[in-house]
Specification:
Length: 262
Amino acid sequence: MSAKPATNGKYAIEAHNLNVFYGDFQAVRDVNLRIEKNKITALIGPSGCGKSTVLRSFNRMNDLIPTARVHGQVRFHGKNIYDPDVDPVLVRRRIGMVFQKPNPFPKSIYENVAWGAKINGFKGDLDQLVEESLRAAALWDEVKNKLDASGYSLSGGQQQRLCIARAIAVKPDIILMDEPASALDPIATLRIEDLMIELAKNYTIIVVTHNMQQAARVSDYTAFFTVTPDRTGYLEEFGPTSELFTMPKSKVTEDYITGRFG
């Protein structure tokens, strides 16, 4: 994958007939999904429906699971990221990830942000990069006088914003978020939601959430996943969030968002 591949129209990333297996178990079946650039797309659905599996397929995180197999295509700038000549490390540099539980490195706040850029050969002004990244993550004003303090010294919500700053520092195109606020209190959750809306001005955001109110508040598009009786996840419905929540096309979607199941 080249450092600056050609752009691919209005879509940041596209899944075509995506199937994911863990050993003999099929976790996700035939997912076709186009994610629009500079929008927030929420992946919702009951537990075990494959939301996180699909999210991890978008930057090859499933490669780290020995039993995982991915069939189909995930196209990023027109290139299938699963082609044999694609380096998954480069994919993850361009498509960052923020996990459910904040996971700062056992380093200073400054080094948490600078580390990824340094190991990727960043040659510019590190101080400026750290400040810009922390500002973009709405954390700079809270930590600017204690950059040498441990990342672990921050609150849970601050740690999650530090992890977002760390992801931003390597200049990705897309930021994947796997339930980024589920471990946080309501106030910290709202700060993360506000931050996501702000970040979407410069990045494409794809977020997995169990919180349908959160999906309704922050996302432009929503993909609803559900499961077959044998527990294989599939995409039931996808569309603009306002339409999916008010006029779902599928009875299964309607039952889920109205609380009849799930």
